[in-house]
């Protein structure tokens, strides 16, 4: 009986000791901040995120645990905060979500701006899946991404001669880096300014978009610059394209998208880079603009947005008709005309022909306006006075043509539908 009581007593003592050890372990375990660090990062609240990380580092240091990961995140936060304080003022006019492998099918780039295509489509190979290639508007130069033999993607260039032969593929001098992935090249019509996406130490996250210029004296590209927010983000930001002929731009990102999907944003390119001034707006609005929460929040000039959306619609229509039909005119969602014989009303057809003429006039006015605006920013004060008058006159003409075309489209639809 004594042995049984002694055994029970020992079990009680051991149980009590184990409970005390568990309690002590719980008390000694670092208590991390209750607030959600990921939520602070997702909303670009970098100030709060930095405080949360500092709190976490302090707790970990007290318990003599490593803080390397948290310190690396702090360095990233400092980089992100700098980008947030210099968000570019960009007007976005449209967005569309598509599969990543179909992006190029949805960007109506004019031939005057060159061509962007899949590397494998150009070379007829299957080795570099997901890589893209840029061909100059004259067709005499290509810049493309391909595997560098070390498991990374880099940019290479080739010259196309008049007899169809090509030079050897050479890595882009000044940009070649076998420690980072590079892809999605695009060269402006000046032949020296290049945009591309890179996945490396200077990226905010995944791929970021960078810009560089070719130095003819040094025969190399200058050190590339991260173009910042709102184009770049903690997600993957891929392709950046500017159509100077139509005064439109596009960039591609997978932020806030499911796997395999991306969003293509259409925007109005700036002649010179303009940034928001943090001191002149609420911090929450700056964060929304930085992460591109709403394209409407970027609108400051309704007429400018309407003109850009019109140019975008016509660019899409031009690309579509070049590939498949004589033209495309939407009567209803289920009734789309592609040939003149599709019209049932002769009066509607006459109005359509008038609309085509007005569209040509509008295209000329828009193209001239783009050129004059560029000249304006580079002109002297005396020259600007004259240019301003020409720009104002053309803007009125452009606005009048847009109203006429809109009225003609509505009237054509009314006549075809017998309303």
Can you tell me the overall shape?
globular
Treating each run of at least 4 consecutive H or I residues as one helix, how many helices? 9
State the share of residues found in helices, binned by percent. Answer: 40-55%
Structural class: alpha+beta
**Regions with little confidence, pLDDT below 50 for 5+ residues:** 4-9, 23-34
Q: What is the mean predicted local confidence, pLDDT?
A: 87
Total E-strand runs: 16
Largest beta-sheet characterization: 5 strands, antiparallel
Cα-atom radius of gyration: 29 Å
Q: What is the H/E string?
A: HHHHEEHEEEEEEEEEEEEHHEEHH
3D structure, described in words:
The protein is of the alpha+beta class and 419 residues long. It has 9 helices and 16 strands. The chain has helices spanning 2-28, 37-42, 46-62, 68-84, 119-123, 283-291, 302-323, 346-378, 381-417, and strands spanning 91-99, 115-118, 132-135, 141-147, 153-159, 170-171, 181-187, 193-199, 208-215, 220-221, 225-226, 237-243, 248-253, 261-268, 329-332, 335-337. The strands form 4 sheets. It has a 5-stranded antiparallel beta sheet with strand order 2-3-4-5-6. The protein is globular and about 85 Å long. The model is unreliable at 4-9 and 23-34 (pLDDT under 50).
In short:
The protein is of the alpha+beta class and 419 residues long.
